[in-house]
TrEMBL record:
It is an enzyme of class 7 (translocase). CDD domains: CuRO_HCO_II_like_2. GO terms for cellular component: plasma membrane. The keyword Disulfide bond does not apply. Residues 1-89 form the Cytochrome oxidase subunit II transmembrane region profile domain. It is a multi-pass membrane protein. It comes from the Bacteria. This is Cytochrome c oxidase subunit 2. It comes from Geothermobacter hydrogeniphilus. Pfam families: COX2, COX2_TM, Cytochrom_C. Residues 90-200 form the Cytochrome oxidase subunit II copper A binding domain.
């Protein structure tokens, strides 16, 4: 990090301590003077006023000049700190933060999105602030920054994360019933790790590579990605699934974890899924170790719940979880079953829902599509009718979101 760089903490903290120190000194001085006057001029000692003093020029000059100097000093340091907060270093990395009821979406220069703000340690970061609906405020206490996000107007803040860690981001402007849930974090990581994350080496690019490897080795000719049965079982929802297999002539129930998938690639005849023919060839010696791990990473992600804002891939190649995050859905709907502004997404697909007025229906594709296009048509009982419609979503995007929701099982 540049040692000459004045960070936002450097700009704000001295001003805060200066004003706090001056206020403390004045408080003590006034309190001490008041106590001295109470003791020195108490009624029992001076029952009748005897002072004939009409004025004291020295005191009058002191209590005019000294407070003026103090106030001007406060103004100077405050103004200098404000300028430091508004003057962005020329080498700052730029990120766009879009606020909406009730979530944050961060977009990077290469088009990558995240619901948490990832930044490299030691590098200045400029955050462009936009709002999709109402007035919000971007507030990161650790970096002493708070700035309004106003609909129709672009604003900005900047900061430097000196140390690796996770720092809270709050909305500091009341923006509706989900205001308290509009919380995320700044994730400060080492520069090399950040570059890997930004390039997608831990995310979507690995997913694409895993799928391309499956296609290259012919796996997708026998295994579907959408849940339908082909020659072999579908890959959708494979990770963590309970599978009944035939091994050594006996039925056993095992968990489809990383070790099981690896064995199925290298020695598929050892444990064959019940109901399917043992026709899969062995890939021992044909697939390298790193390729095997990339394929397993991909298979463990398909049709699974999102974690930390990363998602499984939809059949259409669209990122359903990413779409839901960028449209602000995760600001009102949880992924872990907890209650927020709207019903949780966990286990939503296929569940019976009770609506306002006493009607019930099943949360199938038709209902969920209608909930996205016309959310006030069927409002779930116990929840406010505050969800906006999303007519801008293309049919294939809606389909990707529905496929992702279907994977969020209990």
């Amino acid at each position: 990090m540049n040692p000459a760089l004045i960070t936002t903490q450097d700009a704000v903290d001295p001003v805060f301590w200066f004003i706090l120190g001056i206020s403390g000194v004045i408080l003590l001085a006034i309190t001490a003077t008041m106590i001295w006057f109470v003791i020195r001029y108490r009624r029992s000692r001076c029952p009748e006023p005897t002072s004939q003093c009409d004025g004291n020029l020295t005191l009058e000059v002191i209590w005019i000049v000294v407070p003026t100097i103090i106030v001007l000093a406060m103004f100077y340091y405050g103004w200098a700190g404000y300028l430091a907060l508004r003057q962005v270093p020329p080498d700052a990395m730029e990120v766009t933060a879009t606020a909406r009821m009730w979530s944050w979406d961060f977009e990077y220069a290469n088009g990558r999105h995240s619901d948490r703000l990832y930044v490299p340690v030691g590098r200045p970061v400029k955050v462009r602030l936009l709002s999709k609906d109402v007035l919000h405020a971007f507030f990161v206490p650790a970096f002493r920054i708070k700035r309004d996000t106003v609909p129709g107007m672009e604003n900005y803040v900047w900061f430097v994360a000196d140390e690796q860690g996770s720092y809270d981001i709050f909305c500091a402007e009341y923006c509706g019933v989900g205001h308290a849930d509009m919380h995320t974090t700044v994730e400060a990581v080492p520069p090399a790790e950040f570059e890997e994350w930004l390039a997608g080496m831990s995310g979507s690019q690995n997913t694409e590579k895993g799928r391309s490897l499956l296609a290259r080795y012919g796996c997708l000719g026998c295994h579907s990605l959408d849940g339908s049965n082909l020659v072999g079982p579908s890959f959708k929802g494979l990770g963590g699934r309970q599978v009944t297999v035939i091994a050594d002539g006996e039925e056993r129930v095992i968990t489809s974890d990383r070790d099981y998938i690896r064995r199925s690639l290298i020695a598929p005849g050892v444990a064959v899924v019940k109901g399917y023919p043992p026709v899969m060839p062995s890939y021992a010696g044909q697939i390298t170790g790193p390729e095997v791990e990339e394929m397993i990473d991909y298979l463990l992600r398909i049709g699974q719940p999102v974690k930390n804002g990363e998602s499984a891939e939809s059949e259409a190649g669209l990122d359903g979880a990413g779409l839901a995050r960028r449209q602000g859905c995760l600001g009102c709907h949880s992924l872990d079953g907890s209650r927020k502004v709207g019903p949780s997404f966990k286990g939503l697909f296929g569940r019976e829902r009770r609506l306002e007025g006493g009607r019930t229906l099943i949360a199938d594709e038709a209902y969920l599509t209608r909930a996205i296009r016309k959310p006030t048509a069927d409002v779930v009982e116990g929840y406010p009718p505050v969800m906006p419609p999303y007519p801008q979503l293309r049919p294939e995007e809606v389909e990707a979101i529905l496929e992702w929701l279907e994977g969020l099982t209990e």
